């Protein structure tokens, strides 16, 4: 776990404790998040997950804004209870009042998408090719059947895989 990330989480907690004049249990922090989200707060587990790629590519803003954003979710949940809106006024209060940050709901980091594999399927009538995602291809391997809308024949894997 990068030292700066943990240090920023701790600093956010100390600011919240000074503001609310109470102690908060520290969360578990994980760098096991992929995809488009920069961070996720798991309220009931007191867990923060961060995207390591977006952290590496945007470290300064990530430490300042994203870490505070996710910690604010946990703080708002613990102060105001479980029935608040995710980005509602309580969370905004924490962002503005405690961290003195603009309560932005979403980040604007550039997302680099991984190339996706597609698996080529055909039917009996050869009415063209059908590109299946890796997930759909795996379902076929588990027994799921897909049929051609025109001839109602079962689509079958050609053995061809393309990067898309």
TrEMBL record:
Domain SprT-like: 7-158
Listed PANTHER family: PROTEIN SPRT
Superkingdom in the source lineage: Bacteria
UniProt record, GO biological process: response to stress
Protein name, entry field: SprT protein
